[in-house]
Amino acid sequence: MGGQTAGGRSRGSFGPGALLSIVRGAPAWTRAELVKASGLGRTAVAERLDLLHRASLITVNEPVLTGGRPAETYSFNADVGRLMVADIGGRHTRIGIADLDGRLVASAEADLDADDGPGPVLGYVIERMRELIHEIGLEEWRIRGIGVGVPGPVAGGIMQRPHLPGWEGTDVPAAFGEAFPGVPVVVDKDANILARGEQARDPRRCRNAIVLKVGMGVSCAVIVDGAVLHGAHGAAGDIGHVPRGGEILCRCGQRGCLDAVASGRAIAAKLGEQGRRARTSREIVDLVRGNDSEAIRLVREAGRQLGGPLGFLAAVANPAVIIVGGNLAESPEPLLAGIRETIYGSYPPSLTSTIDIVASTLGAEAGLAGAAQLALDTVLLPENVDATLA
Ligand SMILES: [Zn+2]
Description:
CATH architecture of the largest domain: 2-Layer Sandwich
Bound molecules: zinc ion
Number of helices: 15
CATH superfamily of the largest domain: ATPase, nucleotide binding domain
Radius of gyration: 23 Å
Number of domains: 3
């Protein structure tokens, strides 16, 4: 990705930030390799390396033998700063601190109910971030960026008509900006950051992908030709409130939405009708893992329901893969089986036979990994790096 950015720039604007994008693409580079990869002259490369080195953005490694003369090599220094990341879900929130490679160095989680509104939820997240910073002894000036996933569509950092009381119009970057002045804040909906995490892990496979997040609610992201789609109001791919029929009242006020019939919330309600108790997706997953036949049946049925709108979305976006994440996918087999049943069974092979339907391999911390990538996309954007060096 960095290489593309660098390669697409004219030579005149090929600053140190663009060279850093190349350096980040491999563990170590000799100066000769960087001259070749950048198309810049030796002097220009040397000048840019010097600037990056003085800002501690790169490290210079001991000379290694390269077919004759020993040459020193250059590596990106992911420890020069830290990112703060949060994955705020409908019922569950994860918070973390990552290095500039997007690797988590600390994390925490809590059952937070987004229905409580943005004030208490964002307030808690900010407070917990401060505690994490303190716990690991991080100096606040080392924080380079903040990446946040929120449970609803976002455009320009502002929450758009989420089906959550009180969130519409919330300026998420402003809330974090007040707590951490001067630190860039990037926000996107939860499924989009999950998609960004999957994309960072395997860019080739995720070049065209649908990423579904199933927890207590249903959220979905679409990647087409390498770009996570946003749309006019940040709601591209939001299939949660597509009508599926039936009379079950959805939290959005309509009846029979996908979210009302195929989410963790829907399964918990059905278990509740049978006198069973499962308050969270985790508790449903525990039942599945314990081989509870009714829980397995309900999760599989939710998968079948999800398959309908997903198949239609696949006909639009033509993905190579549908990746299923979220807490309910932590024991993914019945969910995947239901989705596959509908997609391969109800749609013609010409539309769906080339689509792999798999579980996310990033696990519970996928959202945090994605939030880190989201922040890195901004923090290490070549023009932003050049601006901080100037
Ligand atoms: Zn709805």
